[in-house]
Specification:
With 215 residues, the protein is of the alpha/beta class. 25% of the residues lie in helices and 18% in strands. The termini are far apart. The chain has one domain: Rossmann fold.
């Protein structure tokens, strides 16, 4: 049977000076450092046998996909299944303003962290990403496919692939900016998961999706 690899690439740092939980909001682009990160992940995959590049519809993912697709002469195909997870607090400042956990008005959104109650259920995220992964695997059979998307959908998909619970501590996610989570298939069967951080040299001082600063 043939071996096919589907790479799940997280987008680079976003220009977000107000540290908003931007979620699915349109218009959030890569920062200058995020563009440098995208170039690094493009270099990382330049010598790979990439047959297709598909991306979340959100601008930051499309911008990250461009330097990946370019060296291979590929068009970026938008896949709605790769969109960011839904979140009730989208558009708010996490930990600073309306989204504070200490505010009793928000407590109803934190009643079930296992689902989670504040946004799109983990299992629904896994289902849509896994569907996109298997479509990409079939289309790129015997070669490599790249899907550019977002941290949480990537992480819960990896947890599911490894047979681990989907509930987790967000601070312990192994899914850095412009990281590459690679799913290796033999035929239709998952054979292993690899992980790389081509842009790690740029992490110091970078801001992640929740407004926290990376070290």
């Amino acid at each position: 049977m043939t071996t096919t690899t589907v790479h799940l690439v997280r987008h680079g740092e976003v220009h977000n000076p107000e540290r908003i939980l931007y979620g699915r909001l349109p218009g959030y682009r890569l920062s200058d450092r995020g563009e440098q990160m995208a170039a690094l992940v493009g270099d990382h995959l330049a010598d790979s046998d990439v047959a297709l590049v598909r991306s979340s519809p959100l601008l930051r993912a499309q911008q990250t996909a461009a330097p990946i697709a370019g060296p291979h002469g590929l068009e970026i195909v938008t896949d709605q299944r790769l969109v960011e997870s839904g979140n009730h607090f989208e558009g708010q400042r996490m930990g600073h303003g309306e989204a504070k956990l200490s505010d009793p008005r928000n407590w109803r959104w934190f009643t079930n962290p296992f689902r989670p109650s504040w946004g799109e259920p983990y299992r629904e995220q896994v289902a849509r990403v896994v569907s996109a992964v298997h479509d990409a695997r079939a289309a790129a059979e015997g070669r490599e496919a790249v899907l550019v998307l977002h941290q949480l959908p990537i992480w819960v998909t990896r947890l599911s692939a490894e047979g681990k619970p989907l509930f987790h501590d967000p601070r312990r996610r192994q899914c850095g900016l412009c990281s590459v989570t690679s799913l290796r298939f033999v035929g239709p069967h998952l054979a292993g998961v690899d992980y790389a951080e081509p842009a790690a040299a740029l992490y110091a001082g970078a801001v992640d999706a929740t407004g926290g600063t990376l070290t």
